[in-house]
Write a structure and sequence with these properties.
- About 75% of the residues lie in helices and about 0% in strands.
- By secondary structure, it is mainly alpha-helical.
- The longest helix has 26 residues.
Length: about 290
């Protein structure tokens, strides 16, 4: 019982921390590609230290057949971060995060095609209503909504597509533990992001102020390295459904940070749209009982 309670506290804490990442990203004046690369590097260093201290060896001989899938999912993860960070630049943290949380709906739609899972009436209702929520968030028909806002939503939805890709690829990976899987995905992200950054923005760290450096280290070590360790350590001791429900703390905290700390406004239509996305996606993940 105590183990279950500790796992629950760790998951709640990690989700709350994930929800604050937009606050720190806003203060890091580098390109989204650079930020994704530095985040992966710092997190990989942290996880390498964790694996070394806990004496966990990665069984490469046993997982060599799944390494291509791990590399592919790591690449998708890296570019997923780039699009999410771009979304933060064009629209509010709350709208970017809510657009990003369309990913579970995309996974629901893709599963019947990839895994021959049937979609019932409930799944179709959740898909239609969550899509309607996205429409309300975009402000279609509201001429006061700027083009940058719409571009930010498109980046958020692009990030959602890539995150859904990561989730779907991971369904094919059966023999790699969570922490090993994440570490190898970070390595794959680093491998592909280094040439991407070299060919686009290059390294611009020299222009970072002290506050930017602090925020970068927090995002890399704290939001990614430490929090990912907490997240995966908690998942193995919690039922899947409860973990899915508690994961909605992330977007709720992000909305609170956006409105209460960053003072970014949300229209009533966007509030309703956000509630529709989170509510119907949550209902979709809950069992029939």
């Amino acid at each position: 019982m105590k183990k279950f309670a500790n796992a629950r506290v760790m998951l709640i804490t990690s989700m709350a921390i994930f929800g604050t990442i937009g606050l720190f990203v806003r203060n890091i004046s580098v390109t989204s590609g650079e930020l994704a690369l530095y985040r992966a590097v710092l997190a990989a260093i942290m996880l390498a230290g964790y694996l070394g201290i806990t004496k966990q060896n990665i069984p490469f001989a046993a997982i060599k057949k799944e390494l291509p899938l791990l590399m592919l999912s790591g690449i998708a993860m890296g570019f997923n971060w780039i699009l999410l960070f771009q979304a933060y630049k064009y629209t509010t943290v709350s709208v970017a995060t809510l657009s990003y949380y369309f990913a579970p709906v995309l996974v629901t739609i893709a599963c019947p095609m990839l895994f021959h899972e049937k979609m019932g009436v409930k799944q179709w209702i959740c898909f239609i209503m969550s899509t309607a929520g996205i429409v309300l968030i975009t402000g279609i028909g509201d001429m006061s909504a700027g083009s940058n806002h719409f571009i930010g939503i498109l980046f958020g939805l692009g990030a959602a597509c890539l995150y859904a890709t990561v989730v779907l690829i991971n369904k094919f990976i059966k023999n790699v533990e969570g922490i090993h899987r994440t570490f190898l995905q970070f390595i794959a992200a680093i491998i592909v992001l280094i040439p991407y950054v070299a060919c686009t923005s290059g390294v611009t760290l020299s222009g970072l102020k002290m506050s930017g450096w602090i925020c970068l280290l927090i995002v890399g070590f704290f939001h990614t390295g430490i929090t990912y360790c907490m997240y995966f350590s908690s998942l193995k001791d919690l039922p899947g459904q409860q973990a899915a429900i508690l994961s909605y703390i992330d977007p709720l905290v992000a909305v609170l940070v956006s409105v209460c700390i960053l003072h970014e406004g949300m229209s009533w239509m966007q509030v309703i749209g956000g509630m529709m996305i989170l509510g119907f996606t949550l209902w979709n993940e809950m069992g029939e009982k």
